Prior knowledge:
Elements: H1 4-9, H2 11-18, H3 29-66, H4 68-91, H5 93-103, E1 123-128, H6 140-147, E2 150-151, H7 152-159, E3 165-166, H8 168-187, E4 192-193, E5 199-200, H9 202-208, E6 219-220, E7 226-227, H10 231-236, E8 242-245, E9 251-260, E10 279-289, H11 294-312, E11 316-320, E12 332-340, E13 345-354, H12 358-363, E14 365-369, E15 373-376, E16 378-386, H13 387-397, E17 405-406, E18 420-421
Parallel strand pairs: 4-9, 8-14
Antiparallel strand pairs: 1-11, 2-3, 5-7, 6-7, 9-10, 10-16, 11-12, 12-13, 13-16, 14-15, 17-18
Helix pairs in contact: 3-4, 3-5, 6-13, 8-13
Amino acid sequence: MHDIKAIRENPAAFDAALKRRPTYQGPWAAELLKLDEASRGGKTEIQALQARRNEVAKAIGEAMRTDKAKAEELKKEAGDIKAKLAALEGGEGENAELTDALMRIPNLLANDVPNGADETANVEVRCGGAKPNIANAKQHFELGEALGMMDFETAAKMSGTRFVLTSGPLARLERALAMFMLDMHTAEFGYTECVPPFLVRDSALFGTGQLPKFGEDLFKTTTDHWLIPTAEVSLTNIVSDSILEESALPRRYTAWTPCFRSEAGSAGKDTRGMIRLHQFSKVELVSITKPEDSEAEHERMTACAEEVLKRLGLHYRIVMLCAGDTGFGSKKTYDFEVWLPGQDAFREISSCSNCGDFQARRMKARYRKGEKHTEFLHTLNGSGLAVGRTLVAIMENYQQPDGSIAVPEVLQPYMGGLKVIAK
Length: 423
């Protein structure tokens, strides 16, 4: 969400920043300022009516003692004032319209985000790990089905398409990956492990920016709860409607949770395998910082996620997303792409984003700076990593000629010493 005061002060700069996002269609500053003017006019009217209401209430008391007719006239005026205030305060008038308009505007991009319309303009930052040389590499679903440990047909019988049932050592490998990631992020990088709610209310999704714009991408229950699309929602909202002490910053949280996405608009994409599912799991990272620390925290978070890939011995690259590919709530995002030999391509396995004060304004999350002054916090989030896609990467990069999967050395303690997953 954006500061309407900043838009009033420099509408041209606001529009210029938004125009860097190629698909953005408005509203622009002029439209927002019209709503703002109407909203401020409504507030002035409310204040005037409230003052008159107080005057009338006092006058009624005096008139009751001296002039009954005048008192009745004043009572009628008081009733009219009450009705007008109810209409202005209850409906919130143009103020609600302004808030809704501001909620639908994406974050302004950081200055170093490259221009560009789509992913073809993303800029590679660095590569890591050695690219494996695997003859006739199979895709993960071919390997998993041949092992008898990855079953899409049974999952579809229960739940429909874009679900999977893993079992045996392959299911344990997925759990091992999550445990390995959590242990690293908590013991070495200082993140606090959480087990947050998987069901949230509207306000939590408004706070992190999934609502109102992306409601079709989410699953909603009959009790008006939403299934989280990522633990970012739950973890970031830990500080909603709060004023933190400066000494308590930064805060760093991590959680391994299921994630639920409708995959609206993805018809025909990745219809086989585990790349694009309605239900998957992630180890999420969230940081809450002071504004002046968020850029450094972004680099730190990126390094934490990158370390997982390094220790798993996977070939990967990190790219900075261009203006046209950067997400709605982010001012700057790094994507991690891991090499999948079976697909002969890089595929996304994590994103780390700096949201600046965009989410904090929506959540009313501040910190105390000095005795009387408060400022909005900065929030950051990233996958450290997407567990299902990391499982895919392990299967394809560690496949053996006989169809078995070698277990990376760092994961073997989590697998009870198992070194190879075989049929």
